[in-house]
Write a structure and sequence with these properties.
heterodimer; A: 10 helices; B: alpha/beta; Rossmann fold; Alpha-Beta Plaits; 2 domains; transmembrane helix (chain A)
Amino acid sequence: MNIEAVKSIYFFEMARTRRTLLQSVVSPVISTSLYFIVFGAAIGERIQQIDGVSYGAFITPGLMMLTLLTQCIGNGSFGIYFPKFTGTIYEVLSSPISMLEIVLGYVGAAATKGLMIGTIILITASLFVDLSIAHPFAMIFFFVLTAVTFSLFGFIIGIWAKDFEQLNLIPMLVVPPLVFLGGSFYSVDMLPPFWRAISHFNPVLYLISGFRWSFFEISDVNPLASAVIILAFLGICMAVLTWIFRTGYRLRN
Amino acid sequence: MASIVSVSNLSKTYASGFEALKGVSLEIEEGEILALLGPNGAGKTTLISIICGIVNPSGGEVTVNGHDVVRDFRQTRSMIGLVPQELTTDAFETVWNTVSFSRGLHGKKPDPAHIEKVLKDLSLWSKKDNMLRELSGGMKRRVLIAKALSHEPRVLFLDEPTAGVDVSLRKSMWEVVERLRASGVTIILTTHYIEEAEEIADRIAVINGGEILLVEEKDALMTKLGRKQLRVDLAQPLERIPDSLSSYNLTLEDDGQSLIYDYDTSAERTGITALLAALAETGVRLRDLSTRQSSLEDIFVEIVEAGR
């Protein structure tokens, strides 16, 4: 194992976060605060408690997931796409480093950033609403696993993307609808039966539901199903990456 | 001398169907400077990229110091430094950080003293805290060399290292290359400046259309393929070449002011003595004589043209 190389990539990527502190950290905190002001304070006042949880607290896990997914995909994809775009990828490809180590460096940094920002949002949220975490280990399980899985997913997008439009396609056009329609701001029980049934095909619903269960013990779907879905998606991402590394797809071809 | 890089029957066909390498075989000897010459699209960069691990080969085998570049990539890549053709740098990184990053990527522990030496050797020390975007093109080129030297490679690939570099910087870069060679580093360079290859290389390989056309000691190549040209400036211009001189392969230039005679230095007889006697017999008066050795560039063009 080339530990020095993994460390080099990891700290190189983390250094970018330090250089772009405003964009990386302050911006998600401000947007989350705005969500709390709009949905929590302005609209939330008019919404009754959901399953015994105040609306402001209810949306916190969804907001954390929204940011976690967006950040992890964004960081994971940009980390590998940018060297491809500038051409500096030659150096990583010609180094004595395995593909697994490359992933550990880039995905590790992307997941770390996502987790940092998710934690900052949790702290910010606790300033607005009363929060309690019923199952801390389950919460950490969903939190970390989602960060790693979606950083891996972002990494795949970064390898696949040929230009900035493709790079932003999934983070901008696919993820927000899935998150917004995945019960971030409501319980799917509030939907008419048809849309409720449709929602169950949305994988993000399972992530948010499981994560929310770890906070408040309320969920739209069985928490075990949530764990299975996230593990399955992690498995799919790992399988796709294995294929990419075997074939050299868009990296060594 | 023992081979440090051994390329055997290497082929590469890209997904587009383009066949960049067609069964290339090449032995690179330890401690030499090998110049890889070839026109654009000849396969130079593909060959280098496969040896360095950037591109997967379609067939054949490459070993570096006996290790296979695919199977034993850790051993081979830690021995290799690569300076790419394109000026690819992280615009927002400092010189120090980017060179240190390269060392880490190659699995070497941080060694500030070595990085300092490399930067000083390349006259980059005063720029160590500058961001790369603040540097000129020539400076960036030197940073790429510093990155390639950060992990103390045994084999250094320089892909068009002097493209877009001014004359004084080019000279100082060749001084660095000479010092590296003196320290035992094997250097493979591609260049469009053939006079550079002529000046610095020990051996020349010519590649075109994905095939190696020849690999020769530079001096032997110059002698073997080197044609010389005798230029005879005449006191009185000639309208045409006299019949008595028709057996010589002469051409008339400068409105009949000069006769040009091509001859082969390696031939048993150059024919110069006979030609001069024949000129005297014909009554042609000479004003001056000069000879010119064909350059590596002439030889290169000749080989590539012959290969077409």
